[in-house]
Amino acid sequence: MHRPVRPPRLCFIVRKFQREHPTTFDDVRGVELRKIVAMQMPATPEQHRFYSALLFELGAPHNTSAGLSTLERLARDLLRRIAPRMLVVDEVHHLLEGSYREQRASLNLLKYLANDLRLSIVLVGTDDAPIALQTDAQMSSRFTAFEVPRWRENDEFRRFLAAFGKLLPLRKASELTEREVVQFILAASAGLTGEVVRILNEAAELAIRDSTES
């Protein structure tokens, strides 16, 4: 028995959404309750790997070599216990890495979980995400596409940088709203929120290590 290596972090927006809907604990039943469960679609869209990734996100030690039916039963049982209202699946464009049969099987799996557990499913991915759903017309019709626009040089982006700067564990203020800095961050991140956050976090770590603190 072992637990797989944690996958890359989920989309910054998804993590923020999770923080706004924190986990609670039912003292009477002795059960952890989660409103939101978020996971990543495995790089290869295979049902066994999907359930293993889901169980890992649920904090459930399991035998990754167990049969598909065993992992499915364990995952469904745990989901019923923690009673989530939403399952967020990031990197859904990974479906395109599988065969037609694997894509259909993964989409049927999501459909089954939504119906069986009566929860909402949110799929997150790149521009290829809508294409990944086209193998199942019924599945595709269940979702409304919403595109998160890339950041541009404007007051809204400066407010975002200023607010994020206040969260950084640095002793000095960082001039993140200066035009030169704003333009550099936009160029380096291509306007993607996740890349902006990565750049700022790495810059903060460097500032701590070299004692500039800004």
Features:
single chain; Rossmann fold; 9 helices; disordered N terminus; about 10% strand; two-stranded antiparallel ribbon; globular; 5 strands; about 210 residues; mainly alpha
**Under CATH, the topology of the largest domain is which?**
Rossmann fold
> Into which percent range does the helicity of residues fall?
40-55%
Specify the biggest β-sheet: 3 strands, parallel
Cα radius of gyration in angstroms: 20 Å
Let me know the number of strands: 5
Write the topology of this structure:
Layout: H1 12-19, E1 24-26, E2 31-33, E3 36-40, H2 47-57, H3 68-82, E4 86-90, H4 100-117, E5 120-123, H5 129-132, H6 137-141, H7 155-167, H8 179-189, H9 193-209
Parallel strand pairs: 3-4, 4-5
Antiparallel strand pairs: 1-2
Helix pairs in contact: 2-3, 8-9
Summarize the structure.
This protein is mainly α and 214 residues long. It contains nine helices and five strands, in the order αβββααβαβααααα.
Task: Describe the protein in words.
The chain is mainly alpha-helical. It folds into two domains: 12-141, P-loop containing nucleotide triphosphate hydrolases (Rossmann fold, 3-Layer(aba) Sandwich); 155-209. The chain is built from nine helices and five strands, in the order αβββααβαβααααα. Helix 2 (47-57) runs parallel beside helix 3 (68-82) and helix 8 (179-189) crosses helix 9 (193-209). The model is unreliable at 1-9 (pLDDT under 50).
